[in-house]
Amino acid sequence: MKNKIIVGLLLVVILVSCRKETGPKGETGAQGNANVKTTIIEAGQWDASPQNNTFETVLQVPDITTEIMNNGTVQVFLWIGGANSSGSNYGWCAVPYSTSYQSFYFNYYVDMVTVNCMFVDSSLVENPGMKKFKVVVIGGQ
């Protein structure tokens, strides 16, 4: 019992005696956006690909370089506008994006993104019409 009290007191002394030391303030870093570029693109030209049961559109994105392909990444979002039953807007949805009947997915290459749309049951979907996409290009280190 005596040993437990001594160990307990030593533990309290050790924890209380520890304090954080503050060094000199560092220099202010350069302003930046972490190598992120965002582009909003409206696409209405969809090409049918009956062998794949998809429609495809090509988004021209010059920010996608060989450097991005090798060291960065690309994200795509689909604008789902309008109001739902609660009255709020849907907003931007990350691709791949699926509803109960329709699915969107994408691939990216130097200078472009291809977005495909298909029915969930793999039958040929109707032409998706005008869609708005946000393409986010993130550079690597």
Residues in helices, as a percent range? 10-25%
Radius of gyration: 26 Å
| Span of the ends, CA to CA | 57 Å
* Secondary structure category: alpha+beta
Overall pLDDT score = 84
Please provide the count of β strands.
9
SSE run: HEEEHEEEEEE
Structure annotation, total helices? 2
Low-pLDDT windows of residues: none
The largest pleated sheet is described as: 5 strands, antiparallel
Principal-axes geometry comes out as elongated
Order of strands, main sheet, comes to 2-3-8-7-6
Please state roughly what percent of the residues sit in beta strands, choosing from under 5%, 5-15%, 15-25%, 25-35%, 35-45% or over 45%: 35-45%
Structural description of this entry:
- The protein is of the alpha+beta class and 141 residues long.
- The chain has 2 helices and 9 strands; from the N terminus they run αβββαββββββ.
- It has helices at residues 2-17, 66-71, and strands at 36-43, 47-49, 54-60, 73-83, 89-94, 97-98, 102-109, 112-119, 131-138.
- It starts with a helix and ends with a strand.
Features:
elongated; single chain; 16% helix; 4-stranded antiparallel beta sheet; 9 strands; alpha+beta; 2 helices; 141 residues
Task: Give a topology summary.
Layout: H1 2-17, E1 36-43, E2 47-49, E3 54-60, H2 66-71, E4 73-83, E5 89-94, E6 97-98, E7 102-109, E8 112-119, E9 131-138
Antiparallel strand pairs: 1-9, 2-3, 3-8, 4-5, 4-9, 6-7, 7-8
Concise account of the structure shown:
This protein is an alpha+beta fold. The chain has helices at 2-17, 66-71, and strands spanning 36-43, 47-49, 54-60, 73-83, 89-94, 97-98, 102-109, 112-119, 131-138. Strand 2 (47-49) and strand 3 form a beta hairpin.
